[in-house]
Amino acid sequence: MDERLVELVLRAVDLIPPGRVAAYGDLGRIVGIGPRQVGAVMSRHGDGVAWWRVTNASGGFAPDLLERARPHWLEEGIELSPGGGGCRITEHRADLARLAVGWRESVADLDPPGE
To answer: How many domains, the chain?
Structure first.
């Protein structure tokens, strides 16, 4: 996997504030890649960042990840969805415009693609 791409995604995740979440697709739009690519980066390299702040489009996770995410959500005040299969993403989604601005600033030091 491209190291630059990994760094681009992980820097975006680092900018999601405690108590907020973003979907794979939200981050993909900011970084300029698809949600599956974000998911691939997170599955291989996400242990060092607040991975529980990155969910699927409905605010959920696979059952094994959901169990690991719940204590983090509780600590950060992220509420579970009524069915308990994820979080209330509409209430806890990060300010995506602010996240995009912060991300652009945070990756300014990286070499442009292909260099």
So the answer is: 1
